[in-house]
Amino acid sequence: MTLTAPETQHGNITRPPSWRLALPAKTKLINANQTIHYRRKAELVKVIRNAAWTMARHSNIPALQRAHVYFVIHPDTSIKRRDPGNWAPSAKAAVDGLVDAGILPDDDATRLVGPDPRIGHPVKGSQLVLWITDLDQIHPDHLALLNPPTLPGDPR
User: In the structure, what pLDDT confidence band is assigned to residue 1 with cuts at 50, 70 and 90?
Assistant: First the structure.
């Protein structure tokens, strides 16, 4: 399911266009703490990537030049310890699916900020949700808030 985030105002900051892309619940996800054979991992990456591609192709998300992506992991109800960063391999595969679908031209640092992890409410079987924000519609002063502070002498 894909939906557009409502327009919201935070002081002088207006949220740029954002879309929610939810992979099907119970899609087998990859956790960085898993010890998994490389062939099995490749199979899981392919499933996640294809699921993201399919959901993106059937969504109303336009082709973007630059984006910020949050990934929200809705862990299985049986998981007690919840560390959203552990699902970064799943998020990477899903972002690759966005590139395959033509939503982003590439997922390098010039085109993508993130994916940044967040934790959501538990869902039976777990679920991965991407929030995609168009960075070309954000004011440059506000874009800086998405990145770490720059220290004096930092070449960035």
Answer: very low
